[in-house]
Amino acid sequence: MPADITDLFREHGLTPVKKTAKEWASPCPCCGGKDRCNIWPEQQDGRGYFWCRQCDAKGDGIQFLRDYTGMSYADACKRVGVTPVANLKAPSLPPAKRGEKFEAVSGELGQLDGVNRPVWQGRARAFVAWATEHLVNTPVQMAWLADRGIDATAVRRYKLGYNPGEKGNNSIIRPREVWGLPPETKEDGKPKRLWLPRGIVIPQILTGPGGTGVVHRVRIRRLDADREQFRPKCKYFVVPGSAMNVLWLPCTTPLREGGGIVVVTESELDAILLHYLAGDLVHCVASMTSNIRNLSRDVFERLQEALCILVALDMDKAGADGWQRWERTFPRAKRWPVPTGKDPGEAFAAGENLRLWLQAGIPAGLRMVTPSGQPLDMPSQVEGREEERPVPPPDVRQLDAMWREIPITFTRFLDEGGNCVGTRWDYDCVWAAGHRDKVDAFLQLADRSRDVWEWLSRNPENLITAKNFLNYSLELPDEW
391: closest CA among 451, 475, 460, 462? Predict the structure, then answer.
């Protein structure tokens, strides 16, 4: 019986998941990406078609069998139930939609007319300070942020807060004029009041005259429980009077003055997380939506000057669609989704080293150097958070970045006494034949670097892949 292409994936140990009536998502047989390989079973006259968005592996069911099982062309045709033909035309990718470019806009974006700015900013500054004190004294919300990599030090630094509501209610209600907002009326003619819902308070604070911090935006991430009861689609609430420019957290070192390296996320909390972990390496930008269309002229010009833009929009369809606008507008932009989960917060919770992930995305020629020309290694601790293991040396970080693109394993063989008696690198020969340059470069670096072998020797596992390569044991085995 002819095999459906999704059956071929399952037989290969992969697990396709249905996305729509005609499209499936699966781990990639080539690069190992968890869900970035798309499958269209009905295309190519029933032979099916697959394409990995990460490594660009693609083909029909016949190509899959030839590349990943070593079948001959005739046997592969028989397996999928077609008659072998000469000069079979290679299938083409489904047409991709081309996104439009960003538009640079002068002035503040989305700012409400008729706002008394001094009054609004005074109220916003007091509200943010009040909310910060509530947050640090609310263990449940502090724990929620800590799970996303934002600890008490980060809360204070970025002036995050928590609005608990008041008088037993899950919101605060105030007259609009108290915040300097112009009056509005409801349909029944009664004055509309300002609603400040319960949730995590995320301010945008820019440096004003005299070096003081000026609040330009207050955004509240509502609690999931509150959304279930009222306005479920309103996950984030922006306090009226706020500006809607993207959040830009500048690099903290003079080595990144000017354009430098920029990483773009959707969520402000994700941008804060990355800035907290790697603000000495990159500028961090939060677009707040994947479908952003306009940028302030100041931000637009800074992005044009950037040496590299790592676009880490959410790993979903909206993020993929939003990437097209970045790709068309900024030639130095490249798609750089997190290796696990949908966004940096999920990747952190899954145990990913986000600093190393960012460094892997920076082109080798733009890696951080000191004025003396010496590489600037990663610090052994992030403010208030000590590492339990040494920082991986440059060769180890480079091999880790290369390993993520190569389906290769390292095996350590032990005798009965637990002593190492040999090692071996294993990989699929068919795949390697089509990616010889990658495999050769990887093995040459692994072979010549003492730092890599030292790191491998301290790995507690006997079967090592890209997923556990960076694991490190403080105790070196007696025999290696």
Answer: 451
pTM: 0.59
Distance CA 282, CA 426 (A): 36
CA dihedral over 110, 114, 118, 121, signed as positive or negative: negative
Pick one of 3.40.1000, 3.30.565, 3.90.980, 1.10.390 as the CATH number of 112-238: 3.90.980
DSSP state of 441: H
CA distances to 191, 247, 291, 312 from 243, rounded to whole Å, are 24, 10, 17, 23
Q: What are 406's strand-pairing partners?
A: none
**Residue 453 pLDDT > 80:** yes
Nearest partner of 65 among 38, 47, 52, judged by Cα:
47
Q: Indicate if the pLDDT at residue 357 is higher than 60.
A: yes
* CATH number of 247-371, picked from 3.40.50.410, 3.40.309.10, 3.40.50.150, 3.40.1360.10: 3.40.1360.10
The Cα 462–Cα 440 span in angstroms is 23
Q: Is 294 exposed, middle or buried (0-12, 13-18, 19+ CB in 10 A)?
A: middle
pLDDT confidence tier of residue 256, bands split at 50, 70 and 90 = low
DSSP class of 375: B
Backbone φ, ψ for residue 376 (5° rounding): -95, 105
Superfamily of domain 5-80: Zinc finger, CHC2-typedomain (3.90.580.10)
- pLDDT of 346 reads 92
What pLDDT does 165 receive? 93
Domain ranges of the chain: 5-80, 112-238, 247-371, 394-464
Sheet holding 308-311, edge to edge: 247-249, 283-286, 261-265, 308-311, 333-335
Q: Give per-residue pLDDT as tens, 36-95.
A: 788 998 888 888 999 887 777 888 988 888 888 878 888 888 888 887 765 444 444 444
Q: Is 292 helix (H, G, I), strand (E, B) or coil?
A: coil
For position 375, what pLDDT does the model report? 45
State pLDDT tens for residues 418-442: 777 778 888 888 888 888 888 888 8
Task: Round to whole Å and give the CA distance between 26 and 41.
Answer: 12
- Cα separation of 153 and 347, whole Å? 20
Residues 6+ apart with CB under 8 A from 215: 121, 124, 125, 128, 203, 204, 205
- Residues with Cβ within 8 Å of 62's Cβ and at least 6 positions away in sequence, in order, are 47, 73, 76, 77, 80, 82, 88
CB 328: neighbour CB atoms within 10 A?
Answer: 14
Residue with tokens 């020969």: 429
Across the chain, mean pLDDT equals 83
The helix/strand/coil state of 400 is helix
